[in-house]
């Protein structure tokens, strides 16, 4: 290579490295960590701010919602709100898959397999059952009821390649404050986002339920090795009229357009989750729960009874700071 070309090549390489760096999501900062006592089944699988408290569900507990006092520093003691769900409706899944889902719940505990929770401004809680592919609405006062979701939700999801794998059904849920739009996240193989609309108690798909469906594999952060695995979603949150999606394997939170599901911006929490002291002996991501507000995000770790590198065996909730320019800036 001639001497004259070397500065040009160096400039090109520098520009390319700058583009690569710019494409990497910014890292979010950890503000606090809260191990949780008192979750009978462990397996923290969903978080939502409701009224004056942070609520949680476990995919091992069908009969309770947990409440956390976020003003407490350090270890949190989970408070129990009893829950009595009526029998779930038929899901529209094939008989064989319904049987497999039921047997899995009986064997591990948690037949309803609650994987997410969300709240509207009226205080209604919405819990998504992965095994039943259904949503339970729990009012502030009164009897919990399963939402009469349109049959098109499951039918359109399966036609788009979602809900075809056992233990890969609806993994996330969020609702807008008015209780008029409800989003569901299909976990993996294929992952996707769906929305249904509520008009005076009648739920319907307006122009189709499916916002997006996506297959394929991707690499996890380098700390988890170089084996590509299925792209996934593990939780949803709604803030500032935007949809926030937790991508478990990629260790990031992405803001998406609520009507199109188009990605607008992403942020990584890999440095928090994969710090040496917080590592689990798992090639997968274990963060399963998400809540977003103006000041930051709450993330819940479903350790599935795994012991962390520092010896921690309890479920953990992290508080992350919002990005410097806020969640809603481009």
Automatic annotation (TrEMBL):
Extent of the signal sequence: 1-22
Coiled-coil features, chain-numbered ranges: none
Domain Phytase-like stretches: 42-193
Highest rank taxon of the organism: Bacteria
Recorded GO MF terms: isomerase activity
UniProt keywords, alphabetically: Isomerase, Signal
Pfam families for the chain: Phytase-like
Identification of the protein by name: DNA topoisomerase IV
Protein species of origin: Pseudomonas mangrovi
